[in-house]
Amino acid sequence: MEFVFTEEQAMIGETARAFFTENATSERTRAAMAADGIDWGLWTAFCQELGLSGIGIAESAGGAGLGLVELAIIAEAAGAQVAALPMLGSLALAAQAIAAGGSAAQQAEWLPALLSGELIAGYVHDNELTADGDILSGSDRFVAHGAAARLFVVTSNTGAWIVPADGAGVCVTAQTTMDQTRPYARVALAGAKGEPLANGPAAIQAALRAGFVTVAAEALGGAQAALDRTVSYARERVQFGRPIGSFQAYKHRLADMMIEIEQARSAVYWAACAVDEGSDEAELAVHSAKSFAADTYFMCAGNMIQLHGGIGFTWEHDAHLYFKRARAIQSMLGSGNWHREKIATMILGEAA
User: Fold this and answer.
1) pLDDT, tens digit (0-9, with 9 covering 90-100), for 6-58
2) pTM metric for this prediction
3) From residue 169, how far is each of 135, 139, 194 by CA, in Å?
4) 147: Cβ–Cβ under 8 A, 6 or more apart, which residues?
5) Is there a contact between 231 and 245 (Cβ–Cβ < 8 Å)?
6) In order of start, what are the domains of the chain with their CATH numbers?
Protein backbone atom coordinates (compact mmCIF):
# COMPACT_ATOMS: atom_id res chain seq x y z
CA MET A 1 0.00 0.00 0.00
CA GLU A 2 1.15 3.55 -0.76
CA PHE A 3 0.62 5.95 2.14
CA VAL A 4 1.26 9.13 0.16
CA PHE A 5 -1.67 11.24 -0.99
CA THR A 6 -2.10 11.70 -4.71
CA GLU A 7 -2.28 15.20 -6.13
CA GLU A 8 -6.06 14.88 -6.34
CA GLN A 9 -6.35 13.72 -2.72
CA ALA A 10 -4.13 16.57 -1.52
CA MET A 11 -6.34 19.02 -3.39
CA ILE A 12 -9.47 17.54 -1.82
CA GLY A 13 -7.87 17.93 1.61
CA GLU A 14 -6.93 21.57 1.00
CA THR A 15 -10.42 22.37 -0.26
CA ALA A 16 -12.11 20.65 2.68
CA ARG A 17 -9.87 22.27 5.30
CA ALA A 18 -10.42 25.73 3.82
CA PHE A 19 -14.19 25.17 3.65
CA PHE A 20 -14.60 23.99 7.22
CA THR A 21 -12.17 26.52 8.68
CA GLU A 22 -14.06 29.37 7.03
CA ASN A 23 -17.61 28.14 7.57
CA ALA A 24 -17.72 25.76 10.57
CA THR A 25 -17.04 28.52 13.06
CA SER A 26 -17.53 28.28 16.81
CA GLU A 27 -20.42 30.75 16.62
CA ARG A 28 -22.27 28.67 14.02
CA THR A 29 -21.62 25.43 15.86
CA ARG A 30 -22.95 26.86 19.13
CA ALA A 31 -26.04 28.17 17.34
CA ALA A 32 -26.66 24.67 15.94
CA MET A 33 -26.21 23.17 19.41
CA ALA A 34 -28.92 25.46 20.73
CA ALA A 35 -31.30 24.24 18.00
CA ASP A 36 -31.34 20.68 16.63
CA GLY A 37 -27.60 20.02 16.41
CA ILE A 38 -27.33 20.64 12.66
CA ASP A 39 -25.84 23.67 10.94
CA TRP A 40 -28.25 23.56 8.02
CA GLY A 41 -26.50 26.29 6.04
CA LEU A 42 -23.20 24.45 6.34
CA TRP A 43 -24.85 21.15 5.42
CA THR A 44 -26.43 22.60 2.27
CA ALA A 45 -23.16 24.21 1.21
CA PHE A 46 -21.25 20.99 1.90
CA CYS A 47 -23.62 18.82 -0.14
CA GLN A 48 -24.73 21.10 -2.96
CA GLU A 49 -22.13 23.84 -3.44
CA LEU A 50 -18.95 21.99 -2.51
CA GLY A 51 -20.30 18.66 -3.77
CA LEU A 52 -18.33 16.55 -1.30
CA SER A 53 -21.22 14.43 -0.06
CA GLY A 54 -20.83 11.90 -2.87
CA ILE A 55 -17.24 11.04 -1.98
CA GLY A 56 -16.99 7.40 -1.02
CA ILE A 57 -20.01 6.42 -3.17
CA ALA A 58 -19.50 4.68 -6.52
CA GLU A 59 -20.33 6.60 -9.70
CA SER A 60 -22.78 3.87 -10.67
CA ALA A 61 -24.77 4.77 -7.53
CA GLY A 62 -24.65 8.51 -8.19
CA GLY A 63 -21.53 9.35 -6.18
CA ALA A 64 -18.13 10.77 -7.04
CA GLY A 65 -16.55 7.37 -7.51
CA LEU A 66 -13.80 7.88 -4.96
CA GLY A 67 -13.04 5.77 -1.89
CA LEU A 68 -12.71 5.75 1.87
CA VAL A 69 -9.34 7.49 1.77
CA GLU A 70 -11.03 10.55 0.31
CA LEU A 71 -13.94 10.20 2.73
CA ALA A 72 -11.45 10.07 5.61
CA ILE A 73 -9.79 13.25 4.36
CA ILE A 74 -13.15 15.04 4.44
CA ALA A 75 -14.06 13.62 7.86
CA GLU A 76 -10.69 14.67 9.29
CA ALA A 77 -11.27 18.25 8.13
CA ALA A 78 -14.80 18.28 9.59
CA GLY A 79 -13.60 16.79 12.88
CA ALA A 80 -10.95 19.47 13.24
CA GLN A 81 -13.72 22.07 13.50
CA VAL A 82 -16.21 19.88 15.42
CA ALA A 83 -18.64 20.59 12.58
CA ALA A 84 -22.31 20.13 13.43
CA LEU A 85 -23.24 17.96 10.45
CA PRO A 86 -25.16 14.66 10.04
CA MET A 87 -22.34 13.30 7.87
CA LEU A 88 -21.68 10.17 9.93
CA GLY A 89 -25.20 8.77 10.15
CA SER A 90 -26.62 10.00 6.86
CA LEU A 91 -23.66 9.59 4.50
CA ALA A 92 -21.08 7.28 6.05
CA LEU A 93 -23.57 4.74 7.44
CA ALA A 94 -26.97 4.97 5.73
CA ALA A 95 -25.90 6.07 2.24
CA GLN A 96 -23.03 3.57 2.17
CA ALA A 97 -25.42 0.79 3.16
CA ILE A 98 -27.85 1.64 0.37
CA ALA A 99 -25.06 2.09 -2.19
CA ALA A 100 -23.51 -1.30 -1.36
CA GLY A 101 -26.60 -3.38 -0.61
CA GLY A 102 -29.53 -1.67 -2.26
CA SER A 103 -31.04 -2.66 -5.58
CA ALA A 104 -30.75 -0.31 -8.54
CA ALA A 105 -34.28 0.89 -7.85
CA GLN A 106 -33.55 1.52 -4.17
CA GLN A 107 -30.37 3.42 -5.01
CA ALA A 108 -32.19 5.56 -7.58
CA GLU A 109 -34.99 6.31 -5.12
CA TRP A 110 -32.96 7.29 -2.07
CA LEU A 111 -29.35 8.18 -2.88
CA PRO A 112 -29.93 11.40 -4.88
CA ALA A 113 -31.85 12.97 -1.98
CA LEU A 114 -29.29 11.75 0.56
CA LEU A 115 -26.31 13.06 -1.39
CA SER A 116 -27.98 16.42 -2.05
CA GLY A 117 -28.58 16.84 1.68
CA GLU A 118 -32.34 17.22 1.18
CA LEU A 119 -32.95 13.96 3.06
CA ILE A 120 -31.36 13.05 6.40
CA ALA A 121 -31.08 9.36 7.24
CA GLY A 122 -30.29 7.62 10.50
CA TYR A 123 -28.64 4.25 11.06
CA VAL A 124 -30.36 1.87 13.47
CA HIS A 125 -28.67 -1.34 14.57
CA ASP A 126 -30.12 -3.94 16.94
CA ASN A 127 -28.69 -7.44 17.17
CA GLU A 128 -31.88 -8.57 18.92
CA LEU A 129 -34.21 -7.13 16.28
CA THR A 130 -37.02 -9.50 15.32
CA ALA A 131 -38.24 -9.67 11.75
CA ASP A 132 -41.48 -11.37 10.74
CA GLY A 133 -41.15 -11.03 7.01
CA ASP A 134 -40.88 -7.26 6.51
CA ILE A 135 -42.40 -6.42 9.92
CA LEU A 136 -39.71 -5.28 12.35
CA SER A 137 -39.55 -4.89 16.12
CA GLY A 138 -36.51 -3.65 18.01
CA SER A 139 -34.75 -0.48 19.12
CA ASP A 140 -31.52 1.48 19.16
CA ARG A 141 -30.92 4.01 21.94
CA PHE A 142 -28.19 5.99 20.21
CA VAL A 143 -29.04 6.99 16.64
CA ALA A 144 -26.97 9.97 15.51
CA HIS A 145 -29.26 12.83 14.39
CA GLY A 146 -32.17 10.43 14.65
CA ALA A 147 -34.64 13.17 15.54
CA ALA A 148 -33.90 14.98 12.26
CA ALA A 149 -33.96 11.82 10.12
CA ARG A 150 -36.80 11.14 7.70
CA LEU A 151 -35.48 7.70 6.82
CA PHE A 152 -33.77 4.90 8.73
CA VAL A 153 -31.53 2.13 7.53
CA VAL A 154 -32.18 -0.65 10.04
CA THR A 155 -29.75 -3.54 10.40
CA SER A 156 -29.34 -6.60 12.58
CA ASN A 157 -27.42 -9.85 12.35
CA THR A 158 -30.04 -11.15 9.94
CA GLY A 159 -30.47 -8.40 7.37
CA ALA A 160 -30.98 -4.75 6.46
CA TRP A 161 -34.11 -2.72 5.74
CA ILE A 162 -35.21 0.78 4.82
CA VAL A 163 -37.83 2.22 7.17
CA PRO A 164 -39.51 5.65 6.76
CA ALA A 165 -39.30 7.70 9.95
CA ASP A 166 -43.00 8.59 9.74
CA GLY A 167 -44.13 5.02 9.20
CA ALA A 168 -46.54 3.21 11.49
CA GLY A 169 -44.85 1.56 14.45
CA VAL A 170 -41.84 3.92 14.44
CA CYS A 171 -41.25 5.97 17.59
CA VAL A 172 -38.39 8.49 17.72
CA THR A 173 -37.43 10.10 21.03
CA ALA A 174 -34.75 12.79 21.15
CA GLN A 175 -32.10 12.15 23.81
CA THR A 176 -30.25 14.61 26.01
CA THR A 177 -26.62 13.89 25.19
CA MET A 178 -23.26 15.21 26.29
CA ASP A 179 -22.07 16.04 22.77
CA GLN A 180 -24.65 18.54 21.54
CA THR A 181 -22.86 18.84 18.19
CA ARG A 182 -24.09 15.32 17.41
CA PRO A 183 -27.39 14.70 19.19
CA TYR A 184 -28.80 11.21 19.52
CA ALA A 185 -32.29 9.79 19.51
CA ARG A 186 -33.86 6.53 20.62
CA VAL A 187 -35.58 4.80 17.73
CA ALA A 188 -38.07 2.07 18.64
CA LEU A 189 -39.76 -0.16 16.09
CA ALA A 190 -42.94 -1.94 17.13
CA GLY A 191 -44.33 -3.79 14.15
CA ALA A 192 -42.88 -1.28 11.69
CA LYS A 193 -42.82 -2.18 8.02
CA GLY A 194 -39.40 -2.23 6.39
CA GLU A 195 -38.27 -2.62 2.80
CA PRO A 196 -35.46 -5.21 2.68
CA LEU A 197 -32.23 -4.14 1.03
CA ALA A 198 -31.29 -6.43 -1.83
CA ASN A 199 -28.01 -7.53 -0.22
CA GLY A 200 -28.15 -7.14 3.55
CA PRO A 201 -24.66 -8.51 4.42
CA ALA A 202 -22.98 -6.22 1.87
CA ALA A 203 -24.93 -3.25 3.21
CA ILE A 204 -23.93 -3.92 6.81
CA GLN A 205 -20.25 -4.48 5.98
CA ALA A 206 -20.00 -1.31 3.86
CA ALA A 207 -21.82 0.82 6.45
CA LEU A 208 -19.74 -0.34 9.40
CA ARG A 209 -16.42 -0.06 7.60
CA ALA A 210 -17.24 3.44 6.38
CA GLY A 211 -18.59 4.37 9.81
CA PHE A 212 -15.48 3.15 11.64
CA VAL A 213 -13.15 4.96 9.23
CA THR A 214 -15.20 8.17 9.28
CA VAL A 215 -15.42 8.42 13.06
CA ALA A 216 -11.72 7.53 13.38
CA ALA A 217 -10.81 10.26 10.89
CA GLU A 218 -13.01 12.73 12.78
CA ALA A 219 -11.12 11.81 15.94
CA LEU A 220 -7.80 12.32 14.17
CA GLY A 221 -8.85 15.78 12.99
CA GLY A 222 -10.07 16.73 16.45
CA ALA A 223 -6.89 15.50 18.12
CA GLN A 224 -4.71 17.46 15.70
CA ALA A 225 -6.79 20.60 16.25
CA ALA A 226 -6.51 20.15 20.02
CA LEU A 227 -2.72 20.02 19.70
CA ASP A 228 -2.52 22.95 17.28
CA ARG A 229 -4.69 25.18 19.45
CA THR A 230 -2.75 24.26 22.57
CA VAL A 231 0.56 25.02 20.88
CA SER A 232 -0.76 28.44 19.81
CA TYR A 233 -1.87 29.15 23.37
CA ALA A 234 1.50 28.00 24.75
CA ARG A 235 3.26 30.59 22.59
CA GLU A 236 0.98 33.44 23.65
CA ARG A 237 0.48 32.80 27.37
CA VAL A 238 3.31 34.26 29.44
CA GLN A 239 4.05 33.30 33.04
CA PHE A 240 7.11 34.16 35.13
CA GLY A 241 8.28 36.27 32.22
CA ARG A 242 8.34 33.37 29.73
CA PRO A 243 5.87 31.75 27.32
CA ILE A 244 4.49 28.72 29.13
CA GLY A 245 5.37 26.55 26.17
CA SER A 246 9.03 26.97 27.06
CA PHE A 247 8.66 24.98 30.28
CA GLN A 248 9.88 21.40 30.00
CA ALA A 249 6.90 19.70 31.63
CA TYR A 250 4.55 21.54 29.26
CA LYS A 251 6.61 20.59 26.21
CA HIS A 252 6.61 16.94 27.24
CA ARG A 253 2.80 16.88 27.26
CA LEU A 254 2.71 18.41 23.78
CA ALA A 255 5.26 15.89 22.54
CA ASP A 256 3.19 13.01 23.92
CA MET A 257 0.14 14.35 22.06
CA MET A 258 2.07 14.63 18.80
CA ILE A 259 3.40 11.06 19.02
CA GLU A 260 -0.07 9.62 19.63
CA ILE A 261 -1.54 11.67 16.79
CA GLU A 262 1.03 10.46 14.27
CA GLN A 263 0.31 6.85 15.22
CA ALA A 264 -3.42 7.50 14.90
CA ARG A 265 -2.88 9.09 11.48
CA SER A 266 -1.12 5.95 10.25
CA ALA A 267 -3.90 3.75 11.65
CA VAL A 268 -6.71 5.79 10.05
CA TYR A 269 -5.26 5.92 6.56
CA TRP A 270 -4.07 2.32 6.74
CA ALA A 271 -7.68 1.34 7.42
CA ALA A 272 -9.12 3.51 4.64
CA CYS A 273 -6.53 2.28 2.15
CA ALA A 274 -7.01 -1.36 3.18
CA VAL A 275 -10.75 -1.15 2.51
CA ASP A 276 -10.29 0.63 -0.81
CA GLU A 277 -7.77 -1.95 -2.01
CA GLY A 278 -9.75 -4.94 -0.79
CA SER A 279 -6.95 -6.02 1.51
CA ASP A 280 -7.27 -9.07 3.72
CA GLU A 281 -6.25 -6.75 6.58
CA ALA A 282 -9.25 -4.44 6.11
CA GLU A 283 -11.32 -5.82 8.99
CA LEU A 284 -8.39 -5.73 11.38
CA ALA A 285 -7.44 -2.24 10.21
CA VAL A 286 -10.83 -0.59 10.73
CA HIS A 287 -11.14 -1.92 14.28
CA SER A 288 -7.59 -0.75 15.02
CA ALA A 289 -8.21 2.70 13.60
CA LYS A 290 -11.42 3.32 15.50
CA SER A 291 -10.10 2.21 18.88
CA PHE A 292 -6.71 3.92 18.63
CA ALA A 293 -7.90 7.21 17.12
CA ALA A 294 -10.75 7.53 19.62
CA ASP A 295 -8.43 7.04 22.59
CA THR A 296 -5.91 9.46 21.11
CA TYR A 297 -8.57 12.14 20.69
CA PHE A 298 -9.74 11.74 24.27
CA MET A 299 -6.19 12.03 25.57
CA CYS A 300 -5.46 15.11 23.48
CA ALA A 301 -8.74 16.82 24.34
CA GLY A 302 -8.12 16.23 28.05
CA ASN A 303 -4.63 17.66 27.76
CA MET A 304 -6.03 20.61 25.84
CA ILE A 305 -8.24 21.55 28.77
CA GLN A 306 -5.53 21.07 31.38
CA LEU A 307 -2.82 22.90 29.43
CA HIS A 308 -5.11 25.87 28.85
CA GLY A 309 -5.50 26.24 32.60
CA GLY A 310 -8.59 27.95 34.01
CA ILE A 311 -9.85 29.30 30.68
CA GLY A 312 -9.99 25.77 29.29
CA PHE A 313 -12.68 24.80 31.80
CA THR A 314 -15.07 27.61 30.84
CA TRP A 315 -18.12 27.38 28.61
CA GLU A 316 -16.80 30.28 26.54
CA HIS A 317 -13.75 28.29 25.40
CA ASP A 318 -14.08 25.68 22.65
CA ALA A 319 -11.95 23.12 24.51
CA HIS A 320 -15.06 21.59 26.03
CA LEU A 321 -16.56 21.04 22.56
CA TYR A 322 -13.56 18.92 21.63
CA PHE A 323 -13.58 17.06 24.94
CA LYS A 324 -17.27 16.17 24.72
CA ARG A 325 -16.99 15.08 21.09
CA ALA A 326 -13.95 12.96 21.99
CA ARG A 327 -15.75 11.25 24.85
CA ALA A 328 -18.78 10.55 22.68
CA ILE A 329 -16.61 9.07 19.92
CA GLN A 330 -15.02 6.71 22.44
CA SER A 331 -18.42 5.16 23.15
CA MET A 332 -20.14 5.22 19.76
CA LEU A 333 -19.93 2.41 17.19
CA GLY A 334 -18.37 0.14 19.79
CA SER A 335 -16.11 0.96 22.71
CA GLY A 336 -12.35 0.62 22.50
CA ASN A 337 -12.49 -2.60 24.52
CA TRP A 338 -15.01 -4.09 22.09
CA HIS A 339 -12.82 -3.25 19.08
CA ARG A 340 -9.69 -4.56 20.77
CA GLU A 341 -11.50 -7.80 21.60
CA LYS A 342 -12.39 -8.14 17.91
CA ILE A 343 -8.73 -7.62 17.01
CA ALA A 344 -7.60 -10.18 19.57
CA THR A 345 -10.05 -12.74 18.20
CA MET A 346 -8.81 -12.18 14.65
CA ILE A 347 -5.18 -12.62 15.67
CA LEU A 348 -5.42 -15.27 18.39
CA GLY A 349 -8.59 -17.12 17.45
CA GLU A 350 -9.98 -19.27 20.26
CA ALA A 351 -7.03 -18.35 22.48
CA ALA A 352 -8.49 -14.85 22.80
Assistant:
1) 888 899 999 999 999 999 999 999 999 888 889 999 999 999 888 888 888 87
2) 0.91
3) 9, 11, 10
4) 36, 172, 174, 183, 185
5) yes
6) 202-351 (1.20.140.10)
